[in-house]
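Lab meeting, action items carried over

1. Structure of the two-component assembly. Owner: GW. Status: complete.
Input record:
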Amino acid sequence: MTTVGTGYDRSVTTFSPDGRVFQIEYAAKAVDNSGTTVVAIRCKDGVAMGVEILITSNMLLPNSIERIHSVHRHCRMAFAGLAADGRQIVAKAKAEAIDYESAYGEPIPVKELAERVASYVHLSTLYSWLRPFGCGVILGGYDRDGPQLYMIEPSGVSYRCFGAAMGNGRQAAKTEIVKLKLSEMTCQQGVIEISKIIHGIHDDAMDGVFEVEVCWIRDESNHQHEEEPDYLQEKTMEATKAALEEMDADSFDRFHYNFLQHHVYSSKKRMQNSQPSPRNTAKS
Amino acid sequence: MDDGYGHVTAPHSMGTTIIGVTYDGGVVLGADSRTSTGVYVANRASDKITQLTDNVYVCRSGSAADSQIVSDYVRYYLHQHTIQLGQPSTVKVAANIVRLLSYSNKNFLQTGLIVGGWDKYEGGKIYGIPLGGTIIEQPFSIGGSGSSYLYGFFDQAWKEGMTREEAEQLVVKAVSLAIARDGASGGVVRTVTINKDGVTRKCYPGDTLPLWHEELEPQNSLLDILASASPEPMIS
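Predicted assembly:
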């Protein structure tokens, strides 16, 4: 069966007669069909992000897969698609952030970092001896211009958004994001909403066991009057649990079980779940 | 070797008095205008306050050549940075670039700089970058050979939250006091005021400045006497 790109899709340095570069489009498919979904929203006091992590093996230790990466103190990056490609992009972003601060004496503005990452991703679409990155990046950060959220596609374009979703469940996630009133939402509420969205789009039959990793990025100096971070995270976890209970009473058992594997952490600390999960009862 | 040519072969140095002061809403930079080669005044009306960007200026002291070349490099880097970022550079970034150059070339340079300006995030800021390449953010900064005579003065006269007029008067008074005591400072007093509305340059010639303790009134030149009505010289 011949497909659309036949003949012009062998190399990223070949255009098709109708002006498309098929290799880049195929790279985008790697992101769109990716099992994991990444969701992020820009709230009024920061950025909240969540990643659905599919557990493929019974022998995996809980909370051992980290999908949200720190790029410097004020930025976090998550990606959908080929995980190893994403690791490379994160390493590059870290280097750029440090390099900028050494040269100019201030933390890299999020806009500048997004542009540099986008230009690095684009670089690999220009040479026949490189392949495009098979992952899309969601970059959230907080700088002197406030909270910002960027999305970078394998083609090398970057967008600044108030809400972003990538991966298998992105359409459903986007529909949910649009319903939220982001200008009135705090990060703490945002994290709860994201957990609900990810649970909503997860298909138990297809994908089985999953973990959710969530984070928020906000200016901690604005919140010094609040409770201690640990207590705050515990409260958020309780609230998420309650919201999920409300959401789906009949299949609550499974959600409840999966919830035990959540970890919720702020830009400062990371909290582990207290209860171990008996993995061999996963499919019962 | 004292061959009597010291005054033409000595390096151009700006003995100098330079000052940078923050006020409520911006900064005032001030400097004298004397550039000397040894004891000869090579330029009695030099401009020691140099532009780096639309909103950031630097006061130069020490070796004239060294401070000029550093300013040129910084202006170049900042220009590129502004294009890259799509908005004006902050004062902090400008000061950091000056500091990186000063520190990395500390064995070759002999220049003390005061970077001052206004940006929309932090408002008016002053950064002192003395010999060696330290960077220190201060509410006010003084530098140059004439500054030795001003430490006590500023301890007493400086206060937080001055108005623009108060700050400008303070700077002019301070530079003129330093000129009175420091042989390597003199000429006119130049000030540059930077705030959200832009940049204003002022120049205060010597005769507009107050006279301090034991300073003499300007004397009439004998030439004036000769040119007066009486054809007989020496009888006025």
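2. GW to write a short summary for the group page. Key points so far: The helical segments of chain A are 22-32, 83-104, 110-123, 170-179, 187-201, 204-207, 229-247, 252-259. The CA atoms of residues 40 and 79 of chain A lie 11 Å apart.
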